[in-house]
């Protein structure tokens, strides 16, 4: 997915339209003219390829399905469902069920546990891609095969030829993209489990890419491949600043990541400018590969340092992108779907430069690209490339203005093919991939916005069921409900209970955070016992504990801010209902919306009787999660002799740090705490050995047992493995460590 754009020769079956085989010129023979003509030829081939596959969309899809099914005819899955070697659409649709991740989980678990027989795919599963979608609170594991990397590269190779039609001359400068890799885990069977982009950036397709004027980035590979998020971000920004005049486009995968980089600049520009001024690299960057790579770019440049510092010190950061990178032509980030909430802040930082959403992809497979990249973000549509996978579409029917998937069994059997979707209709995307997913419901809702030749172009409408999202987290209504239930349990001892709630993803703060609006009733014989604010803090914490692992990891890595509860006046939700009724809602069907999407929202109106935003609604109290930046450092000197029944931590065992040193640390957690077993643990617990940053003592790790939800039941191991189980980047100073799970192990 996303960001990087690399032409790459592709080999596909003879039966398919031939993928554009890119020419590369030899660096030594770069005579400018040669290079330009090769680029033009490559661009032409790529555009011809798009024309061909979109013109023959249906035929290509038929061939793709036949190819997948004939290759995998002997897999256990297809045999189990009685496909009997058939490769035609009609038998496939009759015999193969439409499934979700939960249906496939037993098969996926077998592969993860080391069964190498052809269960889902005839080709060996080379790795699992960890999706940001969750199942039972855990990340989904998507099987992948070696050749998928080529398919991903193919999609990347189409991006710049498309872009070049609208913004020529991008080969004359560089792209400043903030791209990151994460630490990897291994399944018990030994397969790698990592995010799709980590897999791509670590592949030879990215690392050993041939010289290409479009794949010329300010970030050296080493800075992208560094797992330490601080070092990676710092060094990428530094290199981007050093080459500021050459930068023609800036971006990241999703808008949230790019905004994070600008926020980082705001916090660290003094140190970055010092490095530029002196031509030396801050000691915080300790990775020798990163240091070496950055030192090739970094030269003493006091003029540039003064310029950047001057811009950063000006009161306003409006237009900071074109101010510091004056030749920037556009911002390349995804702002469709939940990321649209970041458009205003991007407009502010970029002074209204075009925001370009280039592609639509996932861990399951890469889907398509935006053939009209300079369109307004609200009009972005993606053309699914028919060679990527076999696509089907589950029509959603409009009932009272709400899309629903409650369609009849027969309709489910007759999912619509790519070439048969109808303009304006909404569908859920279903894919059959080369890597062993058959009729798999991706969970994305798309709307047909138009056609390119015979291939439909889709607006991304939303993720099915997701009510809250800040970064890559996706919280659905059920998860939210369960989390709210466990949070509101804390009110009971005060004779209080939660009567109504709704939620809001507040991105006006950076990082954004979840806000819950709570209406509370007290019924303890009219004696009003005020509820201490610490209780609400406990509620916030309990809610965060209940949310899925992607949310919690976002909190640990600080891409999501602390959850907030706003207690609203009694009667607020009645007013909300009254308002909805005046707008035509049926009293029989009215349900409190569990999420308000817009800042100027339904909820805001009845609060004050005039238009205002939820954050300024008349709340009678607001409370944050009590551990906003808390890290508990546990100092263990001795290996524990045996797993204790309860783990008692005394203040002398604890030290506290905040990730943002300027933020005051809340003093309330200095008492000793006893952690019961079994315990539901999450990543706020940070271990740091007294001696330095190597963090984990083997004695502790020996007790690790694969019990944690976060750990996805991966094999016990030590040190680095432990962190990677959590899919967390080792932080610069602290290493988040699922310490307590080590003590959950009982015979
Ligand atoms: P993951 O499986 O973590 O790689 O996430 C893939 C999901 O991210 C997709 O199924 C979409 O829900 C979302 N996504 C990917 N690309 C886009 C896009 N261009 N616009 C909106 N959402 C996207």
TrEMBL record:
GO terms for molecular function: ligase activity. Keywords: Ligase. InterPro entries: GH3, GH3_C, GH3_M. Residues 382-463 form the GH3 middle domain. Residues 479-597 form the GH3 C-terminal domain. The keyword Ligase applies. It holds the Pfam family GH3. Belongs to the IAA-amido conjugating enzyme family. This is Indole-3-acetic acid-amido synthetase GH3.6. It comes from Flemingia macrophylla.
